[in-house]
Specification:
Distance between the termini: 18 Å
Shape: globular
CATH class: Alpha Beta
Order of helices and strands: EHEEHE
Number of domains: 1
CATH architecture: 2-Layer Sandwich
Strand order of the largest sheet: 2-3-1-4
Helix content: 25-40%
Length: 83
């Protein structure tokens, strides 16, 4: 996994993790920070339908690891989309 301060995925592709609530997005951000995973809170892109106005930008190639970390922490996600 990319660690904080490193560059994004090897292929340069980002993903957006979307949530049902703002509180879930903030909790996910804190969870990934604790695990030293590079992620950034962003406004949910308009082309992605979501109940929440916040998403987490991640390296798309790390999506499986990110989903596993968030699931283990009990953070419910709405989905992961390629940006």
């Amino acid at each position: 996994m990319s660690r904080a301060g490193s560059s994004h995925g090897a292929d340069g592709t980002y993903g957006a993790v979307v949530f049902h609530s703002t509180s879930a997005a903030i909790r996910a951000d804190k969870t990934l920070r604790k695990a030293a995973v590079e992620a950034k809170l962003i406004p949910t892109p308009r082309e992605i339908s979501s109940d929440c106005g916040l998403a987490l930008r991640i390296s798309f190639e790390e999506r499986d690891d990110v989903v596993a970390l968030l699931t283990a922490a009990g953070v419910e996600i709405d989905g992961v989309h390629r940006l």
